């Protein structure tokens, strides 16, 4: 007999969850820092092109601070644009917001919403991990199924869901995660 947990997760149609998740995950992604670095290098190159190579220590410090500031500002601008785009595209009609029903089986993570129904096979799930109060199923680089712990009546139910998710994912990837 196939072991599974069928759990209806009530993701309240609220864009605040999406914003909070994006802000919580941002500092944990390596791509955030790579983006800042790339923008910083371009800003530094632009400053040097406009003003020439710095000749004094104070100019080097000013150019560096300006470049890093530009990198951080550029990243934040990109994040704001991304969040605005997520907010504009998210609705109950497309299945992003609203009630989700997830079923864990040895085949994969089954998702059912008012707009769609599908399965993400465990071998295709990039990562399963708990980050803060969320269980994350990473399907692709920036595509996640987010399961808030608050969707469960008890911490034990959430832990059981996490454990079974990890077990299925590890079996599909022949990995052990601490």
How would you describe what is shown here?
The protein is of the alpha+beta class. It has two domains: 5-13 and 92-173, PH-domain like; 16-89, no CATH class. The protein is built from four helices and seven strands, in the order E-H-H-H-E-E-E-E-E-E-H. The strands form two sheets. The chain has a four-stranded antiparallel sheet, covered by helices on one side. It has a three-stranded antiparallel sheet with strand order 5-6-7, with helices on one face. The radius of gyration is 21 Å and the shape is elongated. It starts with a strand and ends in a 5-residue tail after the last helix.
Write a compact overview of the structure shown.
With 178 residues, this protein is α+β, with helices and mostly antiparallel strands. Helices cover 48% and strands 21% of the residues. Helix 2 crosses helix 3 (57-89).
- The CATH class of the largest domain: Mainly Beta
Category by helix and strand content: alpha+beta
CATH architecture of the largest domain: Roll
Number of helical elements: 4
Average pLDDT: 84
Unreliable segments of 5+ consecutive residues: none
Overall radius of gyration: 21 Å
User: What name goes with the CATH superfamily of the largest domain?
Assistant: Pleckstrin-homology domain (PH domain)/Phosphotyrosine-binding domain (PTB)
Order of helices and strands: EHHHEEEEEEH
User: And the CATH topology of the largest domain?
Assistant: PH-domain like
Distance between the termini: 28 Å
Mass-distribution shape:
elongated
Helical residue percent band: 40-55%
- DSSP, total strands: 7
Overall number of domains:
2
Tell me the strand order in the biggest sheet.
Answer: 1-2-3-4
Q: Quote the beta fraction.
A: 15-25%
- What's the multimeric state? single chain
**Main sheet properties:** 4 strands, antiparallel
């Amino acid at each position: 007999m196939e072991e599974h947990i069928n759990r209806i997760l009530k993701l309240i149609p609220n864009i605040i969850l999406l914003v909070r998740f994006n802000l919580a995950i941002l500092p944990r992604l390596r791509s955030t820092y790579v983006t800042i670095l790339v923008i910083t290098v371009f800003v530094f190159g632009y400053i040097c092109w406009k003003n020439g190579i710095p000749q004094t220590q104070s100019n080097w410090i000013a150019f560096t601070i300006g470049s890093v500031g530009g990198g951080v500002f550029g990243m934040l601008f990109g994040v704001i644009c991304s969040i605005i785009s997520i907010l504009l595209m998210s609705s109950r009609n497309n299945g992003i917001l609203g009630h989700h029903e997830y079923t864990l089986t040895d085949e994969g993570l089954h998702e059912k919403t008012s707009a769609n129904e599908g399965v993400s096979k465990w071998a295709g799930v990039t990562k399963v991990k708990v980050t803060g109060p969320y269980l994350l199923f990473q399907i692709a680089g920036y595509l996640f199924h987010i399961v808030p712990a608050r969707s469960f009546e008890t911490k034990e139910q959430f832990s059981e869901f996490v454990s079974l998710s990890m077990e299925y994912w590890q079996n599909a990837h022949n990995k052990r995660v601490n």
